[in-house]
Amino acid sequence: MVVADRYEMVCGLEVHVELQTKTKIFCGCTTEFGGEQNTHVCPVCLGMPGTLPVLNREVVNYAIRAGLALNCEIADFSKFDRKNYYYPDLTKNYQTSQFDLPICKNGGLEIEVDGVKKWIGITRAHMEEDAGKLVHSGETITTSDASSVDYNRAGVPLLEIVSEPDLRSIPEVLAYLEQLVQILEYTGVSDCRMEQGSVRFDVNVSLRPIGSATFGTRTETKNLNSFSSVRRCMEYEVARQARALDDGEEVVQETRTWDEGRGITLALRSKEEAHDYRYFPEPDLVPLVIDRQWVEEIRTTLPELPRERRNRLQELGLSAYDAAVVTQTKAMADYFDQGLAQGAEAKSLANWVMGDLTRLLNSNQCQIADSPVSAQQLVALIKLIDKGTLSGKIAKSVLEEMYASGKDAEQIVKEKGLAQISDEGALLGIIDGVIAANPQSVEDYHAGKERAIGFLVGQIMKATKGQANPGLVNQLLKKKLSD
Fold first, then answer.
1. Which helix (H) or strand (E) holds 231?
2. Which letter does DSSP use for residue 30 in this model?
3. Residues contacting residue 249 through CB under 8 Å, at least 6 positions apart
4. pTM value?
5. Tens digits of residue pLDDT in 28-72
6. pLDDT for 302-352, tens place per residue?
7. DSSP state letter for 274
8. Which of 83, 109, 285, 297 would be a feasible disulfide site paired with 95, CB 3.0-4.6 Å?
9. Which residues contact 325 (CB under 8 A, 6 or more apart)?
10. Which residue, among 439, 440, 477, has the nearest Cα to 457 in the 3D structure?
11. How far is CA 167 from the centre of its chain?
12. 183-212 b/e (C-beta count within 10 Å ≥ 16 → b)
């Protein structure tokens, strides 16, 4: 990203992902979201003296699974470390994390922006425990008079995924994050509910003069939980740093917070370096030795990933755009595949899923996984159109009734008498009547005004309440007018 032809943006990202285990990383407390404050806790995750952690094996399974999907090397030998710092939401005054020997490293994924493909490196992905959560009296920490602490989240297992500083524009950042979240959702390692904090983004941004090979001073804005917030935060921070550099000021290396309401970043504290945390090996957990057979067993269970699924759907005839929309979430992609399994034609199915079905879901604030219209029911509706039983226009109203009632399309068509009129004899009588009632349009058509036939067809469809077969109407009408 070039700022007024003077500076280039450099960005690296740290993504914190809550792993979808039933219990916490070092104890048996539930990881379920919500609940009354400080009810999903025990002496271990509260850091009480004398307690000892026990590593949850499923956390390691998920970490390996995510690492393989992100093209990482899985370490044979890994260990946990204590990251020492004081903050009210940290129960032990240190966080159990991984420092120099993470479980995953040297990975990456390919993004595409404006037709240009680019590899974004992933430095590492490591396991750690989440902290608790500060509950502020105001909208943000900077506007609050008081804060309480909820430790329900303390000890929830995280995978922190750290990218290389390879990103050079906001579209690249968003493309990387969208693909990363898709992969995490497809592999099942996280539910990726950003509104619940299951995925949180820390954005490191710096500017450097065009042509310079030296990185500028970076700031880190923490705990963004939506793509929209990332975009707005970066737009503000890039502009803020550019103004400072233009005015001859130094950009301070610091941690900042994003004020969503005001649309600005605010200084939080000076940015720590690794040595400030005084990392040392966690004495209460033995090192983790990972057998290659364990890794390969997990590799065999990896699902079809988003890029692979998009490629398959394009081979079935979808455009790159349609394939990207259909595979945007795993739930929609699974719904689409269920429709294909019922014999639907790919393009027609995509049009209905992306169009009228999505419109109904959005207007009812419903996710596709909870759609009252199953993929099998939607395909049955499409087949009625293909057979000529329903017109496309009436099918839209039938879908709305299906959504509201849960009934099948065929039942609704039968109950309401909506079947398309394809009887030539019945249509010819209506066509004769429309021709007789609109002599001027007939004269216009014979004078070469092709649009006149559209008006006549519209009158026929109106007379049949939209139930006439439009293809047959056009055929019969043209034959009548040419006689």
1. helix 227-246
2. B
3. none
4. 0.84
5. 999 999 889 999 999 999 999 999 999 999 999 999 999 999 999
6. 999 999 999 999 999 999 999 999 999 999 999 999 999 999 999 999 999
7. G
8. 83
9. 350, 354
10. 477
11. 19
12. bbbbbebbbbebeebbbbbbbbbbbbeeee
Residues 6 or more apart whose Cβ sits within 8 Å of residue 442: 435, 452, 456, 481
Count Cα neighbours of 109 within 13 Å in the Cβ-side half-sphere. Answer: 27
User: Token pair for residue 324?
Assistant: 């990207």
Write out the E strands in 114-263: 116-129, 133-136, 147-150, 157-163, 199-209, 219-224, 254-259
Q: In the block, which residue shows the tokens 């400080």?
A: 38
Provide mean pLDDT across the span 372-394.
89
* Of residues 479, 476, 481, the one with CA closest to residue 426: 476
pLDDT in tens, 90-131: 999 999 999 999 999 999 999 999 989 999 999 999 999 999
Sequence letter at residue 301: T
Tokens standing for residue 411: 């039942």
Distances (CA, A) of 360 to 332, 363, 375, 400: 14, 5, 14, 8
